[in-house]
Amino acid sequence: MIVVIKPHVAEERTNQLIEWFKGMGLGVHVSNGEVNTVLGLIGDTGRVDKDLIASLDIVDSVSQVSEKFKQCNRKFHPEDTVVQVGDVKIGGGNFVMIAGPCSVESEEQIVTVAKAVKASGAQLLRGGAFKPRTSPYDFQGLKGEGIELLKIARQETGLPIVSEIMNLIDLPLFEDVDVLQVGARSMQNFDLLKELGKTKKPILLKRGMANTLQETLMSAEYIMAGGNENVIFCERGIRTYSDYTRNTLDLSAVPMLHELSHLPVIVDPSHATGLARLVEPMALAATACGADGLLIEVHNDPLHALCDGAQSLRPEEFDAAAKKIRKVREAIL
Amino acid sequence: MIVVIKPHVAEERTNQLIEWFKGMGLGVHVSNGEVNTVLGLIGDTGRVDKDLIASLDIVDSVSQVSEKFKQCNRKFHPEDTVVQVGDVKIGGGNFVMIAGPCSVESEEQIVTVAKAVKASGAQLLRGGAFKPRTSPYDFQGLKGEGIELLKIARQETGLPIVSEIMNLIDLPLFEDVDVLQVGARSMQNFDLLKELGKTKKPILLKRGMANTLQETLMSAEYIMAGGNENVIFCERGIRTYSDYTRNTLDLSAVPMLHELSHLPVIVDPSHATGLARLVEPMALAATACGADGLLIEVHNDPLHALCDGAQSLRPEEFDAAAKKIRKVREAIL
Amino acid sequence: MIVVIKPHVAEERTNQLIEWFKGMGLGVHVSNGEVNTVLGLIGDTGRVDKDLIASLDIVDSVSQVSEKFKQCNRKFHPEDTVVQVGDVKIGGGNFVMIAGPCSVESEEQIVTVAKAVKASGAQLLRGGAFKPRTSPYDFQGLKGEGIELLKIARQETGLPIVSEIMNLIDLPLFEDVDVLQVGARSMQNFDLLKELGKTKKPILLKRGMANTLQETLMSAEYIMAGGNENVIFCERGIRTYSDYTRNTLDLSAVPMLHELSHLPVIVDPSHATGLARLVEPMALAATACGADGLLIEVHNDPLHALCDGAQSLRPEEFDAAAKKIRKVREAIL
Amino acid sequence: MIVVIKPHVAEERTNQLIEWFKGMGLGVHVSNGEVNTVLGLIGDTGRVDKDLIASLDIVDSVSQVSEKFKQCNRKFHPEDTVVQVGDVKIGGGNFVMIAGPCSVESEEQIVTVAKAVKASGAQLLRGGAFKPRTSPYDFQGLKGEGIELLKIARQETGLPIVSEIMNLIDLPLFEDVDVLQVGARSMQNFDLLKELGKTKKPILLKRGMANTLQETLMSAEYIMAGGNENVIFCERGIRTYSDYTRNTLDLSAVPMLHELSHLPVIVDPSHATGLARLVEPMALAATACGADGLLIEVHNDPLHALCDGAQSLRPEEFDAAAKKIRKVREAIL
Prior knowledge:
8-stranded parallel sheet, homotetramer
């Protein structure tokens, strides 16, 4: 950490601050420039509150030299992490298509959709059993029963299953789920993240509605600090003042997260736009900028979907999109 | 719900949509204008997905006539709700000052601060035992021990205590806490909200980092739908592109929430700005626009605070601010 | 315009509002539903202030049935507009690459870059002569001299030239410039837009820093209302709370603007990210989602660039990117 | 400027950078810490592109020690600036109320409103003659005729007049206007700012729709760099995702701008909220946090206002608000 002292500060006050840092067990390298004195802190600066130091009246600015994220940091782990789900590999050059309905509604629905998306090339099946809904009066998911239906669909198709967990007390129900999804609203549910860190399950970590990339990395760090290295990032749009789409899909997060971290990054164009007709173009864009995969909502009957029908593709639309996605993927290799 | 059909749509297609609504058990009032056909839906439209209808190619626009929030809606409950905490009343003309440190650190610290803020006029003591921290490597709170220390401070001063709950499995530890705070990151932790709805505890519900007022109202609705009517809103700043403050304090939320809901609304100027020197002016502003109370961080030794020292007032600063706050409160009555 | 009256409003008050609308020369179609009365306004509702009506205490909601943008609206002009610049066509299936330095600095610089980008496939040369800079102490561009140097580069290479106009009084200097760029900060400089509407010049209209798509369309409408139909939209990133990029590139604007308008849409990945190493991936993404072209900063010596060197590609980097861009473009056709 | 070099960078590469800085005429103070090498640049670093340096692969971070704003910076001018308009003083403890209609519509209207707001204690009259409207089909203001009507109202009441200038070619029309307002959409119309810097007129500079405080300060700097020190800041709400108000009024800008600059800061609660019923509470809040004045829209007949009627107070509402504003102002002195 580099602390720049304001000009014309009495030496005595600077010395008090230096002593305070030393009292925290840090080494302090003092450099007296012509204009400013600069303190370089050495040691475990993770315990120093950067905002507090910056708020002191004698301090001009503070810069954090080392990032707070360690385990997901590419600096310390230059090769891409490949997350393995059954026979499916994600990251490190392996591209994955995950598809399925927003909510699991019935055995017929989930099996039908699973077969359809498999035929179109999807390698994983997604389906929500626990649904975070803004209103308490909206459909909240089939819960445990939904998980059971997903397993049936897996048995019928061989596709590993992905489903969202909202609450750590539900963890036993997810024992036989292949990939656990952490939704945008839970990205900073730190107790949940810690608990997931104790498992070895692949975790699909969605970026929060208004979170920065640094906060997203720190949430991965919570999981990895517990010993679970199987984390997949998912960009799903951030909240802005956009007037025609539900969120603003921030695709620059794909190359930027790849630069900062070794973990795979996939994109969810369905939630990002909220509009089925924008899913294909944004899926192509995500593929073109290097995403390691896509998470796409597909429903056999969007008009009757119990949740998010507006953003679901029909199976034939997904099939057409998947063909184009593969062409774009080939074009950038 | 009012559905406006686009001009020049074949009557047959409009009729299909009308039949679909009727199949959902809704009444449909059709009005053929010169330009547009307008459908008025009657009955329980809460089950109709507004976004889905709006995405249909024959639909021009959909407007939700009735809000999705019912129990916290002032339309159905015109008088102000007064939340009672021991002898302290909040809302309906009763102004409350809640003060204390970001984190409980030791018995000495919390008792010292509690006595100081009581002497300055605070009626409730706040203190964090469970701390949501962006980094897994930061101090996470004293947890159960912190709650015990808060109770000691309550015994010493008589001040009821307010503390944040992050996880429903911790609920037993909060049995003897007077007000349970839901932090910004948990505002849409719907399982937690449902569980709090089953208690009768006063709930201090902080607006999420990037949540709209409607979403904030819906989260109160989750708690109230369970039978707990003791909800207090707290505006604590929203995320924007502001360059000198941590968040942007949205004070217009105070009169707007008062218009939309009968529940009390308080303001947290400490988290909103992240800077101790901005706490007093923003506390005065919040008071002037009609807030029912304030939540202010006070620490006896901000430089050594384990968390958020940059935004904490020292007891003497809080005392000076409290005097001015009372003067502004009197000026608007 | 559809005006929904609140339930239980006295008939007399509704009638007053109806009379007021009639006094403005509008027809009013009244539909009394079981719950709400709905007024359908017929005629030139463009003069009715939607916000004012919505703020009346008897009004529940107002929906604008017809958009305020007419001339750029695809509804009234279903075929794509093709903007012609010399021999170069933009839109309607024609993809254009526009490249060059942020600022024109010298004859040698602009001619060198022009030759390089032409060799790599660029069809238009961009270069800033008038530079909007946040600080009055920063380099403000070579102004008229810069325009002259651009013309020399055009003569040397045959590439038509694109340059930004900030002020309508500079219009005579731009007489011989092929495409006039309106920068993000000028998107709502309405006097400038009106003046550009009187010319027949192709106008490259950049979306403002925090403008919605509707506002962007309305700015095109200002130009077109004056009689100039040669407008090209340019998405260049919007302001959010992103922490690692300068702006957030909103690529969903590409398919959305294509749906709403018949005008071409290009993308500027250089300003959007502010980082040269993100330009290629975001250019590929823009291409994949259907952009009609790209605006890319290229500089022969970014480290010595007088402006925005951090986001400029070197000629050899642009050449490599252009090859990939063409491959992605082919993949989606 | 402080440049922190990454660890383990070859000395040769660091030396190249040092030489490059020296080639720009800067002094470089090198400090070799145990972990990082830190370069302190001495001299006119205003010409160094911070973003470019930060983007170099050997650089870890760059911090700007000295702000880019000089003339409006409180560091170099500790006392409050007082802007004088006729007999009215603004800033330095002097509070000003500026009121009037959004648009000047007729002599009767502007004179009526002027008399009313004067009677309620307003010291300056505002009225728009040139109106920036999102749509080319909306009322654009009476222009020169509107200015003439404002002068008549000034003659009738003695109130100095404030009106918005959108375009530097209109400057001659404003010769006899007392305060020239730069609207939010023009805050970064740098050519206009430079021209206003050549006058001695008081300039009311509104913060742009999505501008940071630093950008706002830099726009004041443009005016002051030309020799005009009579600048008044105006906070008028910023664009966010707020759902019930037009913008989000950022009141923390008031104390923060006061800390950073010596110039007066006023607040416009009318545009910020877009709702007449929120104007009073937000005006009180602005007063309580130390604003030097208020800019409030008042119209004698908001329902027939040609522009922004939804946010205008009627004269009797302004009168009631003004009384409370004075009480709050007294409470904080």
